[in-house]
């Protein structure tokens, strides 16, 4: 243990949120399935009704808080999905007449959020993530929403710079930290008011549950988010919360392998003539690398690149054996997809987003290179 910084990431992930040991009780108590709790007298206890609170949520929220803000007070609110967490921040903080700044190159569902915000009379301004371009439309906004690295383009913005500028104008700042996870970067330590994530992805990492969270250090802001969860009922199931907490124990191991695999894939792809637009923040030739190395501890498990056209990209995906053709990312099993098939991202038809999992690095790189060979026009090596 480092005496000045506290436990390392692996130690913290393994121990996060565990209750004090009780003789003959499990280390991590099982999920509590309850719509209501015994409640004699006045409702002064922590658990009253299942839409408000649950002991399984409590353990998970404490665990995530310890990862998002080690050694400092923090409040975390878990949700049924990442979109529920995103919506809770936006709709709990914004009112008719307010202005919000969103990235125009962020998560695919943000345009749907924009439509709903505008329907409520909220002004929505957008700008790219790269070059801190959101600064140009910040004046007078109530909330700045940052996504870094951006999904799927993997651009990086300077969180601390944007936070300082936003706070000077009176705006709150929320950072979607889904891709990096708290082991990659900690937005609250960089001054953000909200750290938000879809825990469906890397934080839980097994592709078998939907979950999200919001962490913040201001108890008033946290209460607003928590109240929104109660109003809309976007609560996580106890089994999902328990599975998520169990998964945190391997977070550091999973993230380390995923990042190592992503870097190895990026290095291999960089040598391929048919590959263009290669992006990975941890690659020294990437335009975001200088900023990413200052801001991030780990660079994530996502690599994006462009193949010549749609048909070429689909041949590549069909030829992969160790990488599933699936949406989402951050799991122990590698996935990849042609993002253009959804129609919501401003990307070329041959754009590939590849999420590196926990397979052996040599096997994963070999599979990708073989699939690239088979995808070449006129190739006779297809199996």
Automatic annotation (TrEMBL):
This is Cystathionine gamma-lyase. GO terms for molecular function: lyase activity. Belongs to the trans-sulfuration enzymes family. It holds the Pfam family Cys_Met_Meta_PP. SUPFAM superfamilies: PLP-dependent transferases. It is an enzyme of class 4 (lyase). The keyword Transcription regulation does not apply. Its EC number is 4.4.1.1. Keywords: Lyase, Pyridoxal phosphate. Its cofactor is pyridoxal 5'-phosphate. InterPro entries: Cys/Met-Metab_PyrdxlP-dep_enz (IPR000277), PyrdxlP-dep_Trfase (IPR015424), PyrdxlP-dep_Trfase_major (IPR015421), PyrdxlP-dep_Trfase_small (IPR015422). It comes from Streptomyces albipurpureus. The keyword Lyase applies.
